């Protein structure tokens, strides 16, 4: 009784005077969650994959306004040659972690890079190192989750994989199809058309249509935007529809600032004009950033935890069960 | 001319006679294009020769592409300009470099080139040599993607497999994807790697020492520009009041024939306007002769092995090889190698 009286007096202070009698107050829960999460901070693990030179690191730097790769030693000619000589190059997995803060909210961002993917002459199963890595993170979480002290579980699971498709070619290549099929059940795959400043608007439309058709034909399960609620306003629904029809996003990145109409923007300076990264008529960079960071970052994490990880967990538990049954069977014999 | 009547023999007209005869006879040229699909090979060929060789082409969908092996396709077109006829054959190599596993994907291509040499070799040794059909490949344009930071393993392996069979001209394709600085860096990189791996690409012959300074300067600039960074286009756009071949982007118009945009004009000048005949000569005098010498060596060493006196007549009326013949063959071989360098 006392407690409800306390809530009631709070209600008087709020603007909902008319609904005083029915106001319990749990409407503040989101705010509570909000406050706690700001305190706790967020983390996000993003993987990038695709052949070298497609602008992966440049795009990451543009998206997160970082310079994650400034210490990256781009191999000099001599080392490049040595690499070339190792014709059967192996695929590596490299992690970069950076802590960024914005308006009081902290984000621990981890970028998983996959140098060497798709670069060799023979790329059969070149994605194996990548699928193994993803499985290892799931395995580690699986064990931690089943352990005794679950206070500080380190969550290294990969929340999203940006897959870079080259803008030449006439749609997906065999290696693209095989990569995405190998990863679709382990991670949220977001295919991107990279180096989009290589295609005219008409070519871009054709390429996107082609890629969407082929993704459907091959039954590749890429990350799907959740449908917006039916009670959202018309403008929001329209935006949401446009976003979905724009996929796969065609992106351009840049580490350099150029001057356009008196403003300094990220862009690329060509003899025939200036490409602006954040100009929506030039590429879908803004759409990608909005989707990836501003509206769907949390959904990507949820899908990873609720779908991909749970699938892995289920499979593992089935394996363990089968093994136990086998052992029991052998003991009986 | 009248003043030197006494010393004027008149053979100075020989080039004109050759000229007249060749115009009557017409020319032929076989150009091969190789590189992954989508790098703009057919667009470039159409831009270079102002043709529409590929208008009936059906692009494969992804499913068909997965099972594709490397093919060799030929398109022949007869074009005429100012009374001069050219029978142009383009040899295309669809499927090259597109698979997941590209091990030895150049084998169908090297086999094709060898087959043309083989056919010419037999025809040349035959009885009726009046109408030999020359299908030998005179030049191979190899398209390097503009991404990446230089040559890729497949590029190195392809060029090494072909550099002693055909004149290789490496190109940086889709150059409208690179800023001027990036183009320069990539060209330097590719040139270094070509040298490091000992890849023998087509070398422009040195211009004569008695050419004028301006010509020598142009020649030098041409050589320092390689590998050429090219853009092609099948569409005509309006730029600065003129209708030109180009690509229309939201941020500007790329003009194929604008030398500050790409090296298309340099490539066209080199390939067609000044060095087409040299490419044919090097093919005939170097690559084909290498093949021929190689063939003859194989045959003679085989005969030596067999060591049969009652063997059937060999293709060429060779005596049982003795030391003298072997020496001559070896000498000719060395001569040919020296000419190449």
**Radius of gyration of chain A from the CA trace?**
24 Å
* Proportion of residues in helical segments of chain A: 40-55%
Oligomer: homodimer
Average residue pLDDT of chain A: 83
The chain pair with the largest interface is: A-B, 51 and 53 residues
Tally the beta strands of chain A.
9
How much of the sequence of chain A is in beta strands? 15-25%
Main sheet specs of chain A? 6 strands, mixed
Q: How far apart, in Å, are the first and last alpha carbons of chain A?
A: 67 Å
Helix and strand pattern of chain A: HHEHHEEHEHEHHEEEEHH
Count of runs of 4 or more consecutive helical residues of chain A: 10
Identify low-pLDDT runs of chain A.
Answer: 1-20
Helix and strand content put the structural class of chain A at alpha/beta
Tell me, what's the shape of chain A? globular
Order of strands side by side in the largest beta sheet of chain A?
2-3-1-4-5-6
Written overview of the protein:
Two copies of one chain form a homodimer. Chain A is α/β, with parallel strands linked by helices. Chain A is about 45% helix and about 15% strand. Chain A contains ten helices and nine strands. The first copy, chain A, has helices spanning about 1-15, 30-40, 55-65, 75-85, 130-145, 175-185, 200-215, 235-245, 285-295, 295-330, and strands at about 40-50, 95-100, 105-115, 160-165, 190-195, 250, 255-260, 265-270, 275. In chain A, the strands form two sheets. In chain A, strands 2-3-1-4-5-6 form a six-stranded mixed sheet, sandwiched between helices. In chain A, strands 7-8-9 form a three-stranded antiparallel sheet, with no helix packed on it. In chain A, helix 6 links the parallel strand 4 and strand 5. The model of chain A is unreliable at about 1-20 (pLDDT under 50). At the A-B interface, helix 4, helix 6, helix 7, strand 8 and strand 9 of A face helix 3, helix 5, helix 6, strand 8 and strand 9 of B.
